[in-house]
Amino acid sequence: MLEPIGQATQAAQNIFGEVSTWSDVGSTAHSVAGAFEFPSVEEIDGVLASWRARQESIAKRGTTLEQLVQAVMNPPANDDATNGYMMTWKQSLTQLRDQHSSMLAYIGNYIQKLEAAKTAKQTGEGETTDALRKASGGITQ
């Protein structure tokens, strides 16, 4: 039953290259009351790097997608069947382009949220360090 999905994945790979899932990204954030809590700033950096790499990879595929959209503007023949096929293809590619743009916007937004979480974590770690220094009679910076 999953064979058509495998064929679709293979077809996408033939056009866009590797389209696999994030198998190289491990779980670093732990779920806490419906949210994620990162153990350290370094782990947030790792997740940010993965998202930025994915963002770059998806953005590069946009060029190929634009070339495909432009290709349907010049049908190989001027008959009803070809024109109908090319119109359907154009509509599909336009929807794919819209999804591509939406995906990039989503990833950009998520990266901003991760950066905000990183800043908050850095601030929290700094405040904790200062509190420990004060409690032990040390000097804060």
Automatic annotation (TrEMBL):
Region (Disordered): 120-141
Protein's recorded name: PE domain-containing protein
Organism: Amycolatopsis pithecellobii
